[in-house]
Specification:
Length: about 120
């Protein structure tokens, strides 16, 4: 049964990620992956924040949101490939900026998501 919750959440996350990738953007900088990963970090921080009170949240709900939706939505492998491609094209400044901004913004996103969860009472 756990696999079903992860699969359903993963499908939802993957569809959301694909929808964001369809936004027309004209830049060599992988901004849509960056935005997706930041949104995913905020979401997982929020999920962790609201599920910290485990009495009100089922394990299946946590699996659906944290492992399924967030796992299907965020794009670490795509991030890694895009960073590699920037370095391979000798775009060292963009590559370095992308790695640093991605890591910093995603960690900050988790903090924001957790804080948001304390403000919004479920």
């Amino acid at each position: 049964m756990n696999f079903l919750f992860v699969a359903l959440g993963g499908a939802l996350g993957a569809v959301a990620r694909y929808a964001i990738s369809l936004i027309p953007v004209k830049t060599d900088f992988p901004i849509l992956t960056l935005i997706t990963n930041i949104l995913g970090a905020i979401l997982i921080g929020f999920v962790v924040g609201i599920t910290s009170n485990r009495e009100r949240v089922s394990d299946n709900t946590i699996l659906f949101w944290k492992t399924g939706v967030c796992g299907g939505f965020t794009t670490f492998s795509t991030f890694s490939l895009e960073a590699f491609n920037l370095f391979e094209k000798k775009q060292y400044m963009n590559g370095g900026l992308y790695v640093v901004v991605s890591c910093c913004c995603c960690i900050f996103g988790i903090l924001c998501g957790k804080k948001l969860a304390t403000i919004i009472k479920f």
